[in-house]
Each structure stands twice: as structure tokens, then as C-alpha cells.
Amino acid sequence: MSGRIRLGMVGGGQGAFIGAVHRIAARLDDQYELVAGSFSSDPDRARASASALHVAPDRAYGSWQAMAAAEAGRPDGVEVVSVVTPNHLHADPAIAFLNAGIHVICDKPLCHTLDAARELERAAKASRALFALTHNYTGYPLVRQARTMVAEGAIGTVRIVQVEYPQDWLTTSLESTGQKQAAWRTDPARSGAAGSVGDIGTHAFNLAEFVTGQRVGSLAADLAAFVPGRRLDDNAHMLLRFDGGARGMLWCSQVAPGNENALRLRVYGEFGGLEWAQEQPNLLVHTPFAEAPRMIRRGGAGASFIAAQASRIPAGHPEGYLEAFAQLYRDFADQIVAVREGRPPDPMSRLVPGIEEGMRGMRFIEAAVSSGQAGAGWVSLG
Amino acid sequence: MSGRIRLGMVGGGQGAFIGAVHRIAARLDDQYELVAGSFSSDPDRARASASALHVAPDRAYGSWQAMAAAEAGRPDGVEVVSVVTPNHLHADPAIAFLNAGIHVICDKPLCHTLDAARELERAAKASRALFALTHNYTGYPLVRQARTMVAEGAIGTVRIVQVEYPQDWLTTSLESTGQKQAAWRTDPARSGAAGSVGDIGTHAFNLAEFVTGQRVGSLAADLAAFVPGRRLDDNAHMLLRFDGGARGMLWCSQVAPGNENALRLRVYGEFGGLEWAQEQPNLLVHTPFAEAPRMIRRGGAGASFIAAQASRIPAGHPEGYLEAFAQLYRDFADQIVAVREGRPPDPMSRLVPGIEEGMRGMRFIEAAVSSGQAGAGWVSLG
Amino acid sequence: MSGRIRLGMVGGGQGAFIGAVHRIAARLDDQYELVAGSFSSDPDRARASASALHVAPDRAYGSWQAMAAAEAGRPDGVEVVSVVTPNHLHADPAIAFLNAGIHVICDKPLCHTLDAARELERAAKASRALFALTHNYTGYPLVRQARTMVAEGAIGTVRIVQVEYPQDWLTTSLESTGQKQAAWRTDPARSGAAGSVGDIGTHAFNLAEFVTGQRVGSLAADLAAFVPGRRLDDNAHMLLRFDGGARGMLWCSQVAPGNENALRLRVYGEFGGLEWAQEQPNLLVHTPFAEAPRMIRRGGAGASFIAAQASRIPAGHPEGYLEAFAQLYRDFADQIVAVREGRPPDPMSRLVPGIEEGMRGMRFIEAAVSSGQAGAGWVSLG
Amino acid sequence: MSGRIRLGMVGGGQGAFIGAVHRIAARLDDQYELVAGSFSSDPDRARASASALHVAPDRAYGSWQAMAAAEAGRPDGVEVVSVVTPNHLHADPAIAFLNAGIHVICDKPLCHTLDAARELERAAKASRALFALTHNYTGYPLVRQARTMVAEGAIGTVRIVQVEYPQDWLTTSLESTGQKQAAWRTDPARSGAAGSVGDIGTHAFNLAEFVTGQRVGSLAADLAAFVPGRRLDDNAHMLLRFDGGARGMLWCSQVAPGNENALRLRVYGEFGGLEWAQEQPNLLVHTPFAEAPRMIRRGGAGASFIAAQASRIPAGHPEGYLEAFAQLYRDFADQIVAVREGRPPDPMSRLVPGIEEGMRGMRFIEAAVSSGQAGAGWVSLG
């Protein structure tokens, strides 16, 4: 690669959580350089953010529209933008940059309504530019290994899928205190029709489909808003039926005290099982039927080539969330450079979720909300 | 207590698993003496079992009918019998002994059909004799502590209940090999209308109601028989709605490789959570919201009086399944002796599940099977 | 076995901890019947204990001397006695019963002085009666499996042995409060020359030798009494050199807050390792070099015949301390019955520690104390 | 901070492990820019490395001498260099850059001989430039919290320190295969007088002193080289006596199969304990005496300000080795910028280990080797 990829950012000004994560992820493997941004709709915050981020003042824009226009016209304009705004502000900038031929990395979920998602899908398909969606848990080495093991038949046909993502930070009415992260996530106008289902249920759903290689055909969802006054679900229980014959459960919650980001997947097939938990991401438990369970550790014996490729340091030195997030940036960099160079990308780089996974997530949200409204009746994901 | 309680046994001949467990449980605290039994319908096995168990030859009966008749007429006849036969052979002997004024300890589930269960319920209510059902997991000290903590408001109103009981021993068609335990459990004639739901789902259900103090009002169940040719469910996924407002999930499976008896309960309330797992029974994790999680260990700091009462040895020396099972025997002994002595039993001894819990389990099985047949529609537990 | 073994007990009156454990252990497998005892030097307590334990009044003795004399003369006299008194009261009764041809089960350590130990050793060797020492951790199924795996070369020649037994119950001066267990254990007159080293260090030492099959040739011990005013060590750190070339460390402590009975052994050889912890006794971790670690669970895949033989219930239903303790009683029962029947005992029954292990423990205590007094210089165990 | 700190690197060419780690660490928080390097003594590898690392060709030097001379003369010359060569090549370049007024970040241990260390110490004290030593485990948020808790008396006076760092990668004679990392680490000429003791024992030692705030006064070390033909220790067992009265043990090993980087510290005081393990770095177990153990999680309840300051992302999203390493770079950046700006550095930034910790490590190595040669006699650390 002859030079770093020129990166812009929409959102992610000072105080935002996920913007900072994207920037570290972009920086970790040294393949990107942040050169422009519309970090905030507040001009002062935008300017201060740019300065702190070593972005030149003339490339610190007051709006993504201005940024798209100006950058598209520069010979040294951004090659890719990261969209890290709240859900309702994903689709419009993403479409604009795609239309301008600029690659897009978009935070999940894809956006806040299925209609907007469809427009974005059209734009992504029409554009020659690439689109990535940061379902970041797919960047963990042992998640990728689990996917490969399932695909290669290590546990036989998958029968059972248990996936869950409990948190506890919305156990009380945090949104009433003015806390920003809580405020937009519990507001239908900004978050969309779902609360916990959109925010973390989509991660669980994506992880289940990613690892099993099966698609959820239909679901029955019992949604609840336990905290008085809350307008969106803060807990959801779902039955899942997969198109390959597996059955499963999905639980997401933001009101389960003691749980931080306890995303966990268990998959059982005809002759084995696999278990992985986000809070112990360097371990994959493989349970071949009638054999002693094996602890596969990132970088250790039993870890595969695919896991090694998504790793930076030797076994026993824990990698975490940022490294997994960075893996998506690293893989997407290969896709971008492949376009630059007119070569096919490394096959592994295609593991980065894209518009298709984004649309799956939107259908999942819609199905879960519909089912919830219908008393947990079965709804097809189409 | 002036003398040991005279105990008889129905079933439990050589080679049976649960009969041996009941005998150890009865022996552990030295409050029972096994003096009679109809251990097997095969006379040779019955005799050999009696001899190995130090039961006098004249009290080794060829049938429970003969045993009931003879023992009821002896001044030193059995005061209590343990019924440890397969499900379809619970109700008749239990009714006979209750009618004879002899206390009954019955293995779970109560029996194989709701009709038989109703007859047994009538007999139990009509008899002056006592009835206990060995939902043995309620005998674990920290399960009892969890129940007490919930009742005393330690976690506030319960919102979420996650309970599961996965096993793996039926991952393949073990019943085809002639294995006895597998054969009767997968046979509708002997096991009843449910497979995994009756065998282990009932334990999970009982545990959830025991600890939360809430009753499941309705459920939606997706039952599957994954192993080709199997006639009863070997996996079930359920949504639960509790009468106190909680929502939950129940998963039971006998085809989840790597799981032995991985019964696990997690309960979350307005301001805290509790987690307990049968395979690590000496630990109860308490997660007060916005505080560091606490590891409450049996016998250790934070363990309550109720847990200590159900314990035999100090902290750090693990107790297990047999001790928990024995606890039900110990508690029921107090009930029996209280009758002897015309005094009220120790309140804690009332924690032993009885006919009511048995009927709850039968309604649970019926509801789950109905729901499963109706494509996982909601069914009330009445 | 035609009848239960007639058992007597020395010590173990009401309120004692270890006496109750021995009785449960004796009862668990129904091979013993407690028929006599000198439970306490206090006549009232002795009588009350006997009554609570269903021992006939005429066989509740006021002293072990009286018991030995009377029982040796009865045709139905005790065949074996359990000695469960404090350390300084082990040797005399044990010698007396051995001299009377009555088998002895003695709690550990063997006794309080090396001189007394030598006398006891002589008596044991001279007697036709058998002697067992309850280093109970050797009764755990997976400890026995570990020993077998090492012996069979599963990890190659052992290089490294890390063993530890931390507790916390003496973190403060509990003995000053009058607590009985603390009082005798911190009193040189009753406990012997060592505190934690004798009480729990001996268990760790015994476990290390039992599993590795190597003997400690010499040690260097740093003993400390951290609690002001305490006369015996409450913490000890040791370097170990084994006669087979292994090197190791032993740590025992009674002042390590948060530790209950955290006995743990790790053994590493040329091509693999084994890890076991008493508080999770149903798990043995096997770490073959350059392979994924394997979780061997009691009763599960990978568990051997030897483990199964020391087990009572299936995998996933945890067994604990009492079952392991009972295993020694079960094995010793086989030895006793073999004598009765004039046949050789089952080879597995020889795993019960005896006088030789008791003498090893005494030499360990002496060496540790000598080394400690000499500023942790090396001392040979002879 | 107005611009990124200009960083150079000595060593760390393609294929090196620790150089890549240092670069990621430098990049993570975006406070450094790598602008120069003498990455390898092989000119082709040096050039290729520079190109891959976006370093201008004219600042890719063939030797650190050339680099020191040239960079010291440039107005835009490096402000700091990272020395990431094998141990025997630490001191000379570090001294040269310090003499040139350029700050130095040096990998541990300080160097390969005590004489060289003393020279480096003199240079560091004489220079106005700063010196940092990457004992990277001190960068973990919960290690810092542990240190603070001890300092604030949360567990009382420390009595017991158990520290260990087992690995398994040298279980066989990897150095014989030509593996580079193994080759220099087992070669006295490049590694110094110690093997495992210098490579990882120093980390364990540093961690123990860092957290307890006590210094090791003397030690007794039993060193072994288990692999035939190996010239340096691959396993060491030590007794420790601290100047504040604590006693401890240190175990380091590179031949313990199943262990990757299992650095673990346990500290027990008069009224509590703390436990931390590098492979689960987001958890600190606090065991106040006579209370239930508390699980303090990075970012969660119970995590202190000091931990938060060394953290980047919220609780439940695991951070790992790279983030901890980056923390030292971040802190050292503050020290460097404080010099630039003529202000005192943030007090927390002083947590970065420096020359003093380096000298402690060298004395530790020397003492351990001396003790080992003297049959594990006590040696003072002076």
C-alpha cells in the first residue's frame, strides 16, 4: 500500500463514544489517516474536535453536505467516510457520499426506518463505492473461527442457537437525567421503532447468522419496556426458527443488573457445540460430543489460520474490543486498496458486514417490533 | 427424635440410578432406616436388591400392592415410602400408600398424565399422610437463599427470568441401543406426552417459580425432536409470562453437546440480579445495580441463616447434588416427626415441594405440549 | 458383604466438626454401623452425643481406655474405630486399639510429635489390624485420575509442582475469642510444633506426593506467624525438591482473606500439565503441550475407570467433600472385609493413605519447622 | 498538545514482535508520529521496514549511531526514541540518545548486565531527557487501581504476596529449531545471566513492587533449566521477603504446558485481599475479610478514578494488552509535553516505570542468579 487511506468522519465530536472507537480502530493498523470531518452540528464543538484530532481547519466542516461537496472536488479528498451519528442520521449522509463515489463505513444499525434503509440499499447498489457496516463483533478472531468451524462441519448440522446480549445501563430511567447516550436511544424519533432490539439485539442477530451461516426465517418476539415511562423496548425475548432447520432463542436486555456487554453465543449441532462470550473473547469452547471440552484460545493450539489472520499479538496477551473493531477497518482497507489497485480483495476481507447484513438487521427489527405488537406471534423475515 | 423413620421403597432395584440417589439422601443425615421395599417386578432382582440393601427377606416384596398391604398391617411397618419408578408408575403406588396412611416421597414429575395427577392430588388431599415431591434442586442452600433474597426484596420486583437446563446425553439415538434410562424417557407410554420438557423442563420451571415466588401465567413453547425417529421432544424453547409481571425464557435440551446437567437460573429485578448454576452450586452471584457483583459462597460471608440451615460442612468444602437431595429428606423427616409428636413442623421444612408443586409441573407439561402442537401459541397455565 | 462393619468413634461429640464428617462419610455407602463411642471426656456430653447418634447407652464410654477394654471383649465388639480428637490425642488411643486388634481410622496429621508418631508406627506395623489416615483429598475421583495419568506418562516426567492451600479463617486472632477449633490449632501443646503447616500444609504435601508419585527429598521453608501473639505459624512458603527431579513450591496459609479451602495442585511435565482445585473438584484440566486444554469432568468424556470407581452419580451432578471423604471409608471397608473373608483387597482400596503417609507428613512437619527456625535453609526429609 | 510527538525507533524491523507492539501502543492514542528509525542492521530489511511504516527514506538509518547523529541535528528531529532490540543492545543506544537530549522509551529488562545498567543509570540521571521502561503490565487500569487500594489501606498492611508468570513456549528446545525469539532469549551473550528470570520474572517482580508499594529486601531462588542443553534458567521458584514485613513467593516458568502469559498477582493484608490475572485483565477481585468477594470490573461499579483514567472504552467491552501498553505511551507523552510546555506533568503520568524500576529489575536478576548458584541461599537486593 503506497499511502494511508484518506478518511473523513461524520459525527463523533468530543464526548461521543462510538466516534472515538472508530478513530482508534482506524488508527490501530496504520492504514488510514483522518483528514476531514463534520464532527458536530455545533460549530464550536466541530472546530474544537477538529483541532484535537489534528484535522486541518479548512477540512473541518459544519455539515456533512458541505463536506461531501468539498471533498468530492479535491484531488486529495477523502476516499472513505465513517458515519457515526445516531441512527436517524445514518442514511442521508451515507447516500450522499456513496453518490459522490466515496466509500462509506456506517455504524449499526443501518438506520432508523425500513424505508430509509431501502433507499440506502439502492444507493449502495448503484454506487461504485463500497459500503461497510460495523457489526464489530464479527471482527473477533474466534468469532471468525467459529464461523469457519461451522461451515466446515466441525459440529454437524446446526440444531440449536442460543444468543443473548444483556446490559444493565438502562435499569433506571437514565434518559430522564439528560444523559445523551440514553436520550437518543430511547427516543423513537432518533432510534427508530425499537430500543434494545435495534441497539444490541441487532448485534446478537447478526452474530447468530454470521456464525451459523443459517438465516432466521421467522421469529416470535416478546418485547417489554420495564422502566416506567420508557417508550421503546428495554428487554426482548425471542424464539427463532432458522432456514436450515435450527431453532433458537435470542434475548437482549438493557435492564439486567450485573451485565455490561454480555453478548454470548452458543451453537449446538449434531455432533458438537461451540460457545463464545464477548467479555472473554480470547476463548472459544469447543465441545465435541462424547469428548472432553476443549478450550481454544486466540493464538494458541487449535486456533485456526482465519483467527490468526485477524490477530495482532501472541496467545495469552488478551486482545479486546478495539482490536476486533480495528479488524473491520483493516479488512475494509484491503477492499479499498484492491479497488485502487484494480485487483480482487483478499477473500477474508469480504467478512466485513455490508449492505446485505444491514438490510437483514432492519428486517429483524421490523419483524421483532411487529411480532411484539401482535403478542409475540410468528413473523417471517421475508 | 427417638428412633429412625422406617422407610420403604418402590422401585430402585439394582442398576437404577435414582433409587440409589434416594437411598443415599435418606441415609446422609441418619434419620431414616430402609426396612422394606418392592425394588423390582423381577423377583430375582428384587431379592438380590433387598439383600444388598440389608432389607430383611420377608420385607422384600414382589409388588408394591403386596408391600402396601403387609406393611400397613405391621406395628413396625414403614412410615414412609419413596416412589422411584418411571413416571407412569408413580401415581398408583403413591395413591395406595397415601390411602393406607403412609407418607409418600415421590420422584418427579408427579406422573405421566394430567388425569392420573388429578387422582393423586385427590388422594393426597384426602389422606392424613404427607406427600413430598423431589424437585431436588430446591434443596441447595443457595437456591433457598436466592428465594429468600427475592422474597425480602433484595433485588426489587422481578422483571426478567432466564432459566435453562441443557444436557447432551440424548444427542444421538441412545434409545435405539437399548439403554434403559433413554428407552423409557423417550417412550410416550412410560414418560408421558413430553420428553425433555417433563424430564428436566419441569425442574427448570419449578426452580423459577420457587426462587421468584411468581407463577408462570402463560407460555409459548417451541418443541423439537431433533434426533430422527424420536417421538418426544428433546429440545424446547419457551417464552414465559409470570403473574407478577416478569417475563422470561426457559430452555431445556437433551441434545446440546458439552452440557451435562447445566441447570442455570438468572433473575433480574428493579435493582439487582441473582445468578445460580447447578454445576457450581456453592456460589450465588448477587449483582446489585451500580455496585460490584458479589460472590456469595455457601457457608461464607453473605450466606444467610436459611442457607446455613441447609448445609452440613463449612465454606470452601464443596457440597453437591447428594447433599441437596438429602436436604429434602431431612426436611421431610422433620414434617414426619412433627406429626408423630403432634407439633408443628419447623417452618423451613415446608420448603419441600409437595402435591401443589407437582400439579404445577403437570400443568406446565400440558401447556408446553399444547403450545408446541399449536406452533408455539400462548397457552395459559390456568 | 454380609453385615455392616461395626464402627466405634473416639472424640466427635456434639459441636465437633470433623467427627460429624467422619460419621457421614461412614454412612454414605452404608457399609458401617456406628455402635460405640467415647465421644467426649465430659460425661454429660458423651451421653447426649450417644443418644443423638443412636448408640446404645451401655456402649457410650467415658474414656477410650474403657471403650477399648470393653469392646475388645465383646463378641459383637467394634471392628474399627475412628479417632477424631485433636492431634495430641491421636497416638494413644490409636495404639491401644491397634494393640487390641481393632482397625483404626485416624484423622490427620498422624499426631503431634515425631516421637509419638514413631510409637504409633511401631504399633501399626506390629498389629494385624489395619490403619488408615484420612488425607481425604485423595478420595476425590479426579485426584485419583490425575495420579493415574501421571503414572501412565500422560504428561511425561514431572518437572514442576505448584501446590497451595490457603484459608482465611485465622486472619484475626480468633483463638482469643475462645473459639474451640482455633484454640487447639494454635496451641503447641495440642497441635504440635506447627500451625498451618500441620493443619493444612500436610494435606498439600500429601496431595503433591500422591499425584506425582515423586517424594519430596528436601525443602526450604519460610514460616510466619502474622497475627500478633500467635505462637504457631499461620503462613508458610516453601521450596521443594523432589527425588525424581521435579522442583516445586508449597504455600499454606490461614490468613489469606477470601480463601476458604482453596487447595490447588498444578503439575507440569515434559509434555503436558494437570490442574485441579478442591473447590471445583469435578474438573481436571489437562493441558497437553501444543494442544488445546481439555476440561475433564467427573463422569464425563475423558474421565477414566479409576475416577468412575470413586464416583456415585453421573456427570454434571456435582460431588463434593463428603463424597471424597466417604471414598476413603468405602475403600477401607473393602480392606476390612477382605481381612474378614481372607481374600486380597481390591487394588484400588490400597489408595487409602496409611501409616506410611502419616509418617511422611510428620517428617514434612518436622523438616518445615526446622527449616523455618534456620531461616529457610534446606532440610532433608530423610 | 499542538502537534504529535516525533518518534524514532531502534530495532523493530519486519518480523520482530515487540517493535510492532510499541508502534501500535504509540499510535493508539494518536500522540506520536513515527518519523525515523534504524529498524534493522540488515540494510534491505531496514529499508523495507521503513517503507512499510511510512517513514521517509532519508530517515531510515543503517545504525542507531547514524540516527542519533542525524536526528539530533535536525530541527524536526525525533523527540523520543523507542529501543526495542534484544537485551544486550539496550544500553548503548539508550545512552547515546539520552546524551543527545532525546527522550528514551526502553523495553525491559533494562539491559543484559548490571555494569551496563549502571552506565545507563548514570546517563539517565545526567541527561535532561526523560527515560521510560516498558513494564507494560503496570499500564493495566486495574493494576493501577490495585496499587491505589493498597496505598490507601483498603486491605491493611500487606502480609503475603503471591506472584507468578508461567508460560509454556520453551517447553521443548525451540532454540534448536532456529526460532529467533527463542534463540536470543536462551543465549547468555544476548539475554544476560538469566533466562526466564530476566524475560518474565522481572515483570512479576516489578508488578509485585508496583502494587504493594513494598520493596523486596531479600530473596532465595531455586533456578532450573529443565530442557536438556539449555544454558539459562527456564524455571525459577523464589521466596521473597519485603522491607515492609510481607513475605511472598515468585514463580516464573517458560516450561509449564498450558500457560500462555499467565501473569497473576495475589496480595493479602490484615483485612483483605486483591487478585488480578493478566489474561483476565478487566477484573480485579477484592476480598475484604469476612465479606463476600467483590468483582471489580474495569469501568464498572467499584472501579476508581485512577482506573478510569487509564481506560478508553466502557465496561464490558474488554481492553487488553495493547491498551495497557499504550497507556505507558500516553502517560509518557504527557511527561514529554509537560517538558515542552514547561509545566509539571499530570501526577498519574509518573506511574510510568523509569530508570529506578529498571535498576530494581537488574538487581533482582543479579540476586536471583546469585542465589540460584548458591543453592537458593538468601541474597539481599541491596
UniProtKB/TrEMBL annotation, chains A, B, C, D:
Annotated Gfo/Idh/MocA-like oxidoreductase N-terminal domain residues: 5-131
Phylogenetic placement of the source organism: Bacteria, Pseudomonadati, Pseudomonadota, Alphaproteobacteria, Acetobacterales
Gene3D superfamilies recorded: Dihydrodipicolinate Reductase, domain 2, NAD(P)-binding Rossmann-like Domain
InterPro entries in UniProt: Gfo/Idh/MocA-like_OxRdtase_N (IPR000683), Gfo/Idh/MocA_oxidoreduct (IPR051317), GFO_IDH_MocA-like_dom (IPR055170), NAD(P)-bd_dom_sf (IPR036291)
Protein name as annotated: Gfo/Idh/MocA family oxidoreductase
Pfam families: GFO_IDH_MocA, GFO_IDH_MocA_C3
Domain GFO/IDH/MocA-like oxidoreductase, first and last residues per copy: 143-274
